[in-house]
Amino acid sequence: MEEERKKESEFRIKIDRDSDSYEEFVDQIRTSIEAKDQAGLKSMLDGAHPADIVTLFKDLEREEELYLFRLLSHEDQAYSLIKMEEETLESFLEELSVDEISKTLGHIETDETTYLLSYLPSAKRELVLANLSKADSFEIRSQLGFREYSAGRLMSKDFATVSITDNVRKGIINVRKKAKEIEDIYQIYVTDEDGVLEGFIPLKDLFLTPINTKIAKITNFSIIAFHYDVDQEEVANTFKKYDLVSAAVTDDLGRIIGRITVDDVLEIVEEEASEDILLMAGVSEDERLSTPILQSVKRRIIWLNVNLLTAFVSSTVVAFFEDTISQIVVLATLMPIVAGLGGNAGTQSVTVVIRNIATGDLSFSNWWDAVRKEFTIGVLNGLALGTVTFTMIYLVKGNLTLGLVVGTAMLVNMMVASLVGSLVPILLKSMKIDPAIASSIFVTATTDVCGFFFFLGLATVFAKYLV
Protein backbone atom coordinates (compact mmCIF):
# COMPACT_ATOMS: atom_id res chain seq x y z
CA MET A 1 0.00 0.00 0.00
CA GLU A 2 2.82 2.39 0.93
CA GLU A 3 4.60 1.55 -2.32
CA GLU A 4 1.45 2.31 -4.34
CA ARG A 5 1.03 5.69 -2.63
CA LYS A 6 4.65 6.53 -3.37
CA LYS A 7 4.27 5.69 -7.07
CA GLU A 8 1.05 7.72 -7.32
CA SER A 9 2.73 10.70 -5.67
CA GLU A 10 5.73 10.47 -8.01
CA PHE A 11 3.46 10.38 -11.06
CA ARG A 12 1.58 13.48 -9.91
CA ILE A 13 4.87 15.34 -9.66
CA LYS A 14 5.67 14.34 -13.25
CA ILE A 15 2.37 15.69 -14.61
CA ASP A 16 2.53 18.98 -12.69
CA ARG A 17 2.18 21.52 -15.52
CA ASP A 18 4.19 24.09 -13.59
CA SER A 19 7.21 21.81 -13.21
CA ASP A 20 10.21 22.09 -15.51
CA SER A 21 10.11 18.36 -16.28
CA TYR A 22 6.48 18.24 -17.50
CA GLU A 23 7.18 18.95 -21.18
CA GLU A 24 10.01 16.44 -21.13
CA PHE A 25 7.71 13.78 -19.63
CA VAL A 26 5.04 14.42 -22.30
CA ASP A 27 7.70 14.12 -25.02
CA GLN A 28 8.80 10.78 -23.54
CA ILE A 29 5.19 9.56 -23.63
CA ARG A 30 4.81 10.63 -27.25
CA THR A 31 8.09 9.01 -28.27
CA SER A 32 7.08 5.73 -26.63
CA ILE A 33 3.66 5.83 -28.32
CA GLU A 34 5.26 6.43 -31.70
CA ALA A 35 7.62 3.50 -31.09
CA LYS A 36 4.69 1.39 -29.83
CA ASP A 37 6.72 0.67 -26.70
CA GLN A 38 3.94 -0.75 -24.54
CA ALA A 39 6.27 -1.98 -21.80
CA GLY A 40 7.90 1.45 -21.52
CA LEU A 41 4.53 3.22 -21.42
CA LYS A 42 3.16 0.92 -18.73
CA SER A 43 6.28 1.58 -16.68
CA MET A 44 5.84 5.36 -17.05
CA LEU A 45 2.15 5.11 -16.08
CA ASP A 46 2.86 2.88 -13.09
CA GLY A 47 0.93 4.17 -10.07
CA ALA A 48 -1.05 6.71 -12.09
CA HIS A 49 -4.58 7.53 -10.95
CA PRO A 50 -7.12 7.58 -13.85
CA ALA A 51 -7.86 11.27 -13.15
CA ASP A 52 -4.15 12.09 -13.56
CA ILE A 53 -4.02 10.21 -16.85
CA VAL A 54 -6.92 12.33 -18.11
CA THR A 55 -4.87 15.42 -17.22
CA LEU A 56 -2.07 14.04 -19.37
CA PHE A 57 -4.50 13.48 -22.27
CA LYS A 58 -4.97 17.24 -22.64
CA ASP A 59 -1.52 17.57 -24.23
CA LEU A 60 -1.79 14.57 -26.56
CA GLU A 61 -3.36 14.12 -29.98
CA ARG A 62 -6.49 11.99 -30.19
CA GLU A 63 -4.69 8.98 -31.68
CA GLU A 64 -2.11 9.19 -28.89
CA GLU A 65 -4.87 9.41 -26.28
CA LEU A 66 -6.57 6.32 -27.66
CA TYR A 67 -3.34 4.33 -27.76
CA LEU A 68 -2.59 5.19 -24.14
CA PHE A 69 -6.21 4.57 -23.10
CA ARG A 70 -6.17 1.05 -24.57
CA LEU A 71 -3.14 0.13 -22.48
CA LEU A 72 -5.08 0.72 -19.25
CA SER A 73 -7.02 -1.93 -17.37
CA HIS A 74 -10.78 -1.96 -18.02
CA GLU A 75 -11.36 -0.50 -14.53
CA ASP A 76 -8.94 2.39 -15.12
CA GLN A 77 -10.49 2.95 -18.56
CA ALA A 78 -13.91 3.32 -16.96
CA TYR A 79 -12.75 5.86 -14.37
CA SER A 80 -10.75 7.76 -16.98
CA LEU A 81 -13.93 8.19 -19.03
CA ILE A 82 -15.84 9.43 -15.98
CA LYS A 83 -13.17 12.07 -15.27
CA MET A 84 -13.17 13.50 -18.80
CA GLU A 85 -14.80 16.85 -19.60
CA GLU A 86 -18.21 16.42 -21.24
CA GLU A 87 -17.28 17.46 -24.78
CA THR A 88 -14.05 15.44 -24.70
CA LEU A 89 -15.99 12.43 -23.43
CA GLU A 90 -18.58 12.66 -26.20
CA SER A 91 -15.98 12.73 -28.98
CA PHE A 92 -13.82 10.09 -27.25
CA LEU A 93 -16.71 7.63 -26.98
CA GLU A 94 -17.30 8.01 -30.72
CA GLU A 95 -13.83 6.56 -31.32
CA LEU A 96 -14.33 3.51 -29.10
CA SER A 97 -15.99 0.34 -30.31
CA VAL A 98 -19.15 -1.09 -28.75
CA ASP A 99 -17.11 -3.96 -27.28
CA GLU A 100 -14.53 -1.60 -25.73
CA ILE A 101 -17.22 0.48 -24.06
CA SER A 102 -19.11 -2.59 -22.81
CA LYS A 103 -16.01 -4.03 -21.11
CA THR A 104 -15.45 -0.88 -19.07
CA LEU A 105 -18.99 -0.71 -17.67
CA GLY A 106 -18.71 -3.78 -15.45
CA HIS A 107 -16.29 -1.95 -13.16
CA ILE A 108 -18.44 1.04 -12.20
CA GLU A 109 -21.75 1.61 -10.43
CA THR A 110 -25.04 2.05 -12.27
CA ASP A 111 -25.17 5.84 -11.89
CA GLU A 112 -21.74 6.15 -13.51
CA THR A 113 -22.75 3.72 -16.27
CA THR A 114 -25.89 5.76 -16.93
CA TYR A 115 -23.80 8.93 -17.06
CA LEU A 116 -21.45 7.48 -19.70
CA LEU A 117 -24.24 6.00 -21.83
CA SER A 118 -26.09 9.32 -21.89
CA TYR A 119 -23.28 10.68 -24.11
CA LEU A 120 -23.68 7.97 -26.73
CA PRO A 121 -25.91 8.30 -29.81
CA SER A 122 -29.08 6.24 -29.31
CA ALA A 123 -28.13 3.60 -31.90
CA LYS A 124 -24.70 2.94 -30.37
CA ARG A 125 -26.19 3.02 -26.86
CA GLU A 126 -28.60 0.25 -27.80
CA LEU A 127 -25.73 -1.88 -29.12
CA VAL A 128 -23.79 -1.40 -25.89
CA LEU A 129 -26.84 -2.29 -23.79
CA ALA A 130 -27.40 -5.40 -25.90
CA ASN A 131 -23.81 -6.40 -25.10
CA LEU A 132 -24.48 -6.38 -21.35
CA SER A 133 -26.21 -9.03 -19.28
CA LYS A 134 -30.01 -8.90 -19.27
CA ALA A 135 -30.07 -7.86 -15.61
CA ASP A 136 -27.56 -5.02 -16.06
CA SER A 137 -29.21 -3.88 -19.28
CA PHE A 138 -32.66 -3.77 -17.61
CA GLU A 139 -31.36 -1.74 -14.64
CA ILE A 140 -29.56 0.80 -16.81
CA ARG A 141 -32.49 1.18 -19.21
CA SER A 142 -34.83 1.85 -16.30
CA GLN A 143 -32.44 4.45 -14.88
CA LEU A 144 -32.09 6.19 -18.25
CA GLY A 145 -35.87 6.50 -18.18
CA PHE A 146 -35.74 8.91 -15.23
CA ARG A 147 -35.83 12.64 -15.91
CA GLU A 148 -32.43 14.21 -16.53
CA TYR A 149 -31.02 16.14 -13.53
CA SER A 150 -33.33 14.24 -11.16
CA ALA A 151 -32.49 12.06 -8.15
CA GLY A 152 -33.45 8.98 -10.18
CA ARG A 153 -30.86 9.74 -12.86
CA LEU A 154 -28.25 10.61 -10.24
CA MET A 155 -28.66 7.60 -7.94
CA SER A 156 -26.74 4.36 -7.87
CA LYS A 157 -28.68 1.10 -7.70
CA ASP A 158 -25.91 -0.51 -5.66
CA PHE A 159 -26.90 -0.37 -1.99
CA ALA A 160 -27.18 -2.64 1.05
CA THR A 161 -30.42 -3.40 2.87
CA VAL A 162 -31.59 -5.53 5.78
CA SER A 163 -35.09 -6.52 6.78
CA ILE A 164 -36.55 -4.96 9.91
CA THR A 165 -37.66 -8.44 11.04
CA ASP A 166 -34.09 -9.88 10.88
CA ASN A 167 -31.52 -10.00 13.64
CA VAL A 168 -28.01 -8.51 13.46
CA ARG A 169 -26.39 -11.85 12.54
CA LYS A 170 -28.50 -12.19 9.38
CA GLY A 171 -28.02 -8.51 8.61
CA ILE A 172 -24.23 -8.83 8.71
CA ILE A 173 -24.35 -11.86 6.41
CA ASN A 174 -26.47 -9.92 3.89
CA VAL A 175 -24.18 -6.90 4.02
CA ARG A 176 -21.05 -9.01 3.52
CA LYS A 177 -22.55 -10.55 0.38
CA LYS A 178 -23.54 -7.14 -0.98
CA ALA A 179 -20.18 -5.55 -0.11
CA LYS A 180 -18.55 -7.47 -2.96
CA GLU A 181 -20.60 -5.45 -5.46
CA ILE A 182 -20.58 -2.02 -3.76
CA GLU A 183 -17.71 0.44 -3.82
CA ASP A 184 -18.48 2.15 -0.48
CA ILE A 185 -21.05 1.41 2.20
CA TYR A 186 -21.94 4.28 4.50
CA GLN A 187 -25.35 3.19 5.77
CA ILE A 188 -27.43 0.03 5.81
CA TYR A 189 -31.03 0.73 4.79
CA VAL A 190 -33.78 -1.01 6.71
CA THR A 191 -36.92 -2.11 4.84
CA ASP A 192 -40.13 -3.97 5.58
CA GLU A 193 -41.12 -7.17 3.80
CA ASP A 194 -42.39 -5.17 0.79
CA GLY A 195 -39.16 -3.22 0.38
CA VAL A 196 -40.62 0.01 1.82
CA LEU A 197 -37.92 2.11 3.45
CA GLU A 198 -38.23 2.22 7.24
CA GLY A 199 -34.92 3.70 8.40
CA PHE A 200 -31.19 3.12 8.41
CA ILE A 201 -28.33 1.75 10.51
CA PRO A 202 -24.78 3.18 10.44
CA LEU A 203 -22.40 0.42 9.32
CA LYS A 204 -20.41 0.68 12.57
CA ASP A 205 -23.53 0.12 14.71
CA LEU A 206 -24.42 -3.05 12.83
CA PHE A 207 -21.02 -4.67 13.46
CA LEU A 208 -20.70 -3.52 17.09
CA THR A 209 -24.14 -4.74 18.19
CA PRO A 210 -24.61 -8.26 19.70
CA ILE A 211 -25.54 -10.62 16.85
CA ASN A 212 -28.85 -11.78 18.34
CA THR A 213 -30.23 -8.25 18.66
CA LYS A 214 -33.25 -7.44 16.49
CA ILE A 215 -32.60 -5.00 13.65
CA ALA A 216 -35.63 -2.96 14.73
CA LYS A 217 -33.92 -2.14 18.06
CA ILE A 218 -30.94 -0.39 16.45
CA THR A 219 -32.76 1.20 13.51
CA ASN A 220 -32.76 4.99 13.18
CA PHE A 221 -36.23 5.80 11.89
CA SER A 222 -35.44 9.51 11.30
CA ILE A 223 -34.30 9.03 7.74
CA ILE A 224 -34.07 11.56 4.91
CA ALA A 225 -34.92 10.12 1.52
CA PHE A 226 -35.64 11.55 -1.94
CA HIS A 227 -38.39 10.72 -4.39
CA TYR A 228 -36.84 9.73 -7.72
CA ASP A 229 -38.19 12.85 -9.48
CA VAL A 230 -36.71 15.42 -7.07
CA ASP A 231 -34.41 17.91 -8.81
CA GLN A 232 -30.70 17.36 -8.25
CA GLU A 233 -30.23 20.93 -6.97
CA GLU A 234 -32.69 20.21 -4.14
CA VAL A 235 -30.75 17.03 -3.40
CA ALA A 236 -27.50 19.01 -3.11
CA ASN A 237 -29.10 21.63 -0.83
CA THR A 238 -30.50 18.93 1.46
CA PHE A 239 -27.13 17.15 1.69
CA LYS A 240 -25.54 20.46 2.68
CA LYS A 241 -28.24 21.38 5.19
CA TYR A 242 -28.18 18.06 7.06
CA ASP A 243 -24.50 17.09 6.50
CA LEU A 244 -25.46 13.85 4.77
CA VAL A 245 -22.96 11.38 3.37
CA SER A 246 -25.57 9.12 1.78
CA ALA A 247 -29.32 9.18 1.18
CA ALA A 248 -31.88 6.75 -0.17
CA VAL A 249 -34.02 7.27 -3.28
CA THR A 250 -37.56 5.89 -3.23
CA ASP A 251 -40.34 5.17 -5.71
CA ASP A 252 -43.98 6.28 -5.54
CA LEU A 253 -44.75 3.60 -2.93
CA GLY A 254 -41.84 4.51 -0.66
CA ARG A 255 -39.74 1.49 -1.68
CA ILE A 256 -35.99 2.05 -1.87
CA ILE A 257 -34.68 1.90 -5.44
CA GLY A 258 -31.24 3.51 -5.08
CA ARG A 259 -28.93 5.73 -3.10
CA ILE A 260 -27.05 8.99 -3.63
CA THR A 261 -23.63 9.53 -2.04
CA VAL A 262 -21.77 12.70 -1.13
CA ASP A 263 -19.28 12.37 -4.03
CA ASP A 264 -22.21 12.58 -6.48
CA VAL A 265 -23.44 15.73 -4.72
CA LEU A 266 -20.04 17.44 -4.90
CA GLU A 267 -20.19 17.12 -8.69
CA ILE A 268 -23.69 18.66 -8.71
CA VAL A 269 -22.53 21.63 -6.62
CA GLU A 270 -19.67 22.26 -9.04
CA GLU A 271 -21.94 21.95 -12.08
CA GLU A 272 -24.62 24.27 -10.66
CA ALA A 273 -22.06 26.89 -9.56
CA SER A 274 -20.30 26.85 -12.95
CA GLU A 275 -23.65 27.05 -14.75
CA ASP A 276 -24.78 30.09 -12.75
CA ILE A 277 -21.47 31.92 -13.23
CA LEU A 278 -21.56 31.35 -16.99
CA LEU A 279 -25.24 32.22 -17.36
CA MET A 280 -24.81 35.48 -15.44
CA ALA A 281 -22.28 36.50 -18.08
CA GLY A 282 -24.60 35.46 -20.93
CA VAL A 283 -22.49 32.38 -21.75
CA SER A 284 -23.85 28.87 -22.31
CA GLU A 285 -23.36 26.48 -19.40
CA ASP A 286 -22.03 23.90 -21.90
CA GLU A 287 -19.12 26.05 -23.01
CA ARG A 288 -15.62 24.75 -22.37
CA LEU A 289 -12.09 25.65 -23.42
CA SER A 290 -12.34 22.90 -26.04
CA THR A 291 -15.61 24.24 -27.53
CA PRO A 292 -15.15 25.14 -31.25
CA ILE A 293 -14.89 28.89 -31.92
CA LEU A 294 -17.95 29.11 -34.19
CA GLN A 295 -20.04 27.20 -31.67
CA SER A 296 -18.99 29.60 -28.91
CA VAL A 297 -19.82 32.59 -31.13
CA LYS A 298 -23.27 31.15 -31.87
CA ARG A 299 -24.00 30.63 -28.16
CA ARG A 300 -22.86 34.10 -27.08
CA ILE A 301 -24.23 36.22 -29.91
CA ILE A 302 -27.86 36.02 -28.72
CA TRP A 303 -27.23 37.73 -25.40
CA LEU A 304 -24.83 40.19 -27.01
CA ASN A 305 -27.66 41.21 -29.33
CA VAL A 306 -29.92 41.70 -26.32
CA ASN A 307 -27.21 43.90 -24.81
CA LEU A 308 -27.03 45.83 -28.08
CA LEU A 309 -30.78 46.53 -27.97
CA THR A 310 -30.59 47.78 -24.37
CA ALA A 311 -27.63 49.97 -25.36
CA PHE A 312 -29.78 51.55 -28.08
CA VAL A 313 -32.45 52.28 -25.46
CA SER A 314 -29.83 54.00 -23.28
CA SER A 315 -28.52 56.00 -26.24
CA THR A 316 -32.09 57.11 -27.03
CA VAL A 317 -32.40 58.54 -23.52
CA VAL A 318 -29.11 60.40 -23.97
CA ALA A 319 -30.20 61.70 -27.39
CA PHE A 320 -33.32 63.17 -25.76
CA PHE A 321 -31.02 65.52 -23.81
CA GLU A 322 -28.68 66.42 -26.68
CA ASP A 323 -29.39 70.15 -26.33
CA THR A 324 -28.51 70.12 -22.64
CA ILE A 325 -25.26 68.22 -23.29
CA SER A 326 -24.27 70.58 -26.13
CA GLN A 327 -24.73 73.56 -23.79
CA ILE A 328 -22.97 71.96 -20.79
CA VAL A 329 -20.21 69.76 -22.26
CA VAL A 330 -18.91 68.69 -18.83
CA LEU A 331 -22.02 66.51 -18.44
CA ALA A 332 -20.66 64.10 -21.07
CA THR A 333 -17.63 63.35 -18.88
CA LEU A 334 -19.72 62.75 -15.75
CA MET A 335 -22.50 60.55 -17.20
CA PRO A 336 -20.52 57.26 -17.05
CA ILE A 337 -19.91 57.73 -13.31
CA VAL A 338 -23.60 57.64 -12.38
CA ALA A 339 -24.53 54.80 -14.76
CA GLY A 340 -21.40 52.75 -14.02
CA LEU A 341 -21.73 52.78 -10.24
CA GLY A 342 -25.44 52.02 -10.53
CA GLY A 343 -24.62 48.98 -12.68
CA ASN A 344 -22.07 47.75 -10.15
CA ALA A 345 -24.53 48.17 -7.26
CA GLY A 346 -27.21 46.30 -9.21
CA THR A 347 -24.81 43.45 -9.99
CA GLN A 348 -23.95 43.14 -6.30
CA SER A 349 -27.64 42.82 -5.38
CA VAL A 350 -28.28 40.33 -8.20
CA THR A 351 -25.34 38.16 -7.13
CA VAL A 352 -26.38 38.06 -3.48
CA VAL A 353 -30.03 37.29 -4.26
CA ILE A 354 -29.23 34.58 -6.83
CA ARG A 355 -26.83 32.91 -4.43
CA ASN A 356 -29.47 32.88 -1.69
CA ILE A 357 -32.04 31.46 -4.13
CA ALA A 358 -29.56 28.73 -5.14
CA THR A 359 -28.78 27.78 -1.52
CA GLY A 360 -32.47 27.76 -0.58
CA ASP A 361 -32.12 30.59 1.95
CA LEU A 362 -34.43 32.82 -0.10
CA SER A 363 -37.91 31.69 -1.12
CA PHE A 364 -41.29 33.24 -1.86
CA SER A 365 -42.05 33.25 1.85
CA ASN A 366 -39.25 35.70 2.75
CA TRP A 367 -38.63 37.55 -0.52
CA TRP A 368 -39.71 40.88 0.97
CA ASP A 369 -36.96 40.67 3.61
CA ALA A 370 -34.34 40.36 0.87
CA VAL A 371 -35.78 43.26 -1.17
CA ARG A 372 -36.07 45.48 1.90
CA LYS A 373 -32.51 44.71 2.97
CA GLU A 374 -31.03 45.37 -0.49
CA PHE A 375 -33.03 48.59 -0.88
CA THR A 376 -31.79 49.82 2.52
CA ILE A 377 -28.23 49.01 1.51
CA GLY A 378 -28.81 50.92 -1.74
CA VAL A 379 -30.04 54.00 0.15
CA LEU A 380 -27.09 54.00 2.56
CA ASN A 381 -24.52 53.36 -0.19
CA GLY A 382 -26.21 56.02 -2.33
CA LEU A 383 -25.99 58.58 0.47
CA ALA A 384 -22.34 57.78 1.09
CA LEU A 385 -21.26 57.76 -2.57
CA GLY A 386 -23.50 60.71 -3.42
CA THR A 387 -21.84 62.75 -0.68
CA VAL A 388 -18.34 61.75 -1.83
CA THR A 389 -19.23 62.54 -5.46
CA PHE A 390 -20.75 65.90 -4.52
CA THR A 391 -17.64 66.85 -2.53
CA MET A 392 -15.16 65.81 -5.24
CA ILE A 393 -17.03 67.60 -8.05
CA TYR A 394 -17.43 70.76 -5.98
CA LEU A 395 -13.72 70.77 -5.14
CA VAL A 396 -12.62 70.06 -8.73
CA LYS A 397 -15.21 72.03 -10.72
CA GLY A 398 -16.11 74.67 -8.12
CA ASN A 399 -19.81 74.38 -8.99
CA LEU A 400 -22.12 73.62 -6.05
CA THR A 401 -25.18 72.89 -8.23
CA LEU A 402 -23.27 70.49 -10.49
CA GLY A 403 -22.11 68.56 -7.42
CA LEU A 404 -25.66 68.38 -6.08
CA VAL A 405 -27.02 67.21 -9.47
CA VAL A 406 -24.47 64.40 -9.79
CA GLY A 407 -24.71 63.41 -6.10
CA THR A 408 -28.52 63.30 -6.17
CA ALA A 409 -28.57 61.32 -9.43
CA MET A 410 -26.08 58.91 -7.84
CA LEU A 411 -28.29 58.43 -4.77
CA VAL A 412 -31.46 57.80 -6.81
CA ASN A 413 -29.74 55.43 -9.25
CA MET A 414 -28.17 53.39 -6.43
CA MET A 415 -31.62 53.00 -4.87
CA VAL A 416 -33.10 51.89 -8.20
CA ALA A 417 -30.17 49.53 -8.81
CA SER A 418 -30.58 47.78 -5.46
CA LEU A 419 -34.35 47.53 -5.82
CA VAL A 420 -34.25 46.16 -9.37
CA GLY A 421 -31.24 43.96 -8.59
CA SER A 422 -33.16 42.23 -5.81
CA LEU A 423 -36.56 42.06 -7.54
CA VAL A 424 -35.58 40.83 -11.02
CA PRO A 425 -34.16 37.43 -9.92
CA ILE A 426 -37.20 36.83 -7.72
CA LEU A 427 -39.61 37.71 -10.55
CA LEU A 428 -37.73 35.45 -12.98
CA LYS A 429 -37.85 32.62 -10.45
CA SER A 430 -41.62 33.06 -10.07
CA MET A 431 -41.90 32.77 -13.88
CA LYS A 432 -39.97 29.47 -13.81
CA ILE A 433 -36.97 31.12 -15.53
CA ASP A 434 -33.45 30.56 -14.21
CA PRO A 435 -32.56 33.91 -12.51
CA ALA A 436 -28.92 33.54 -13.54
CA ILE A 437 -29.75 33.67 -17.24
CA ALA A 438 -30.85 37.26 -17.74
CA SER A 439 -30.88 39.10 -14.40
CA SER A 440 -27.65 41.01 -14.89
CA ILE A 441 -28.61 42.13 -18.40
CA PHE A 442 -31.96 43.57 -17.28
CA VAL A 443 -30.42 45.22 -14.22
CA THR A 444 -27.56 46.82 -16.15
CA ALA A 445 -29.98 48.11 -18.79
CA THR A 446 -32.25 49.60 -16.11
CA THR A 447 -29.42 51.32 -14.24
CA ASP A 448 -27.99 52.75 -17.48
CA VAL A 449 -31.35 54.16 -18.60
CA CYS A 450 -32.31 55.47 -15.14
CA GLY A 451 -28.83 56.82 -14.46
CA PHE A 452 -28.75 58.84 -17.67
CA PHE A 453 -32.36 59.97 -17.25
CA PHE A 454 -32.01 61.15 -13.65
CA PHE A 455 -28.66 62.83 -14.22
CA LEU A 456 -29.49 64.57 -17.49
CA GLY A 457 -33.05 65.35 -16.34
CA LEU A 458 -31.78 67.10 -13.21
CA ALA A 459 -29.12 68.86 -15.28
CA THR A 460 -31.80 70.14 -17.66
CA VAL A 461 -33.93 71.45 -14.77
CA PHE A 462 -30.98 73.30 -13.23
CA ALA A 463 -29.21 74.12 -16.51
CA LYS A 464 -29.06 77.87 -15.86
CA TYR A 465 -27.03 77.24 -12.67
CA LEU A 466 -24.56 74.91 -14.42
CA VAL A 467 -23.36 77.13 -17.27
From TrEMBL:
InterPro entries: CBS_dom (IPR000644), CBS_dom_sf (IPR046342), Mg_transptr_MgtE_intracell_dom (IPR006668), MgtE_N_sf (IPR038076), MgtE_transporter (IPR006669), SLC41_membr_dom (IPR006667), SLC41_membr_dom_sf (IPR036739). Residues 218-275 form the CBS domain. NCBIfam families: mgtE (TIGR00400). One of its GO terms (molecular function) is magnesium ion transmembrane transporter activity. The gene is mgtE. It is a multi-pass membrane protein. It is found in: Cell membrane; Membrane. The chain crosses the membrane at residues 301-321, 327-354, 375-396, 402-428, 440-463. Acts as a magnesium transporter. This is Magnesium transporter MgtE. Belongs to the SLC41A transporter family.
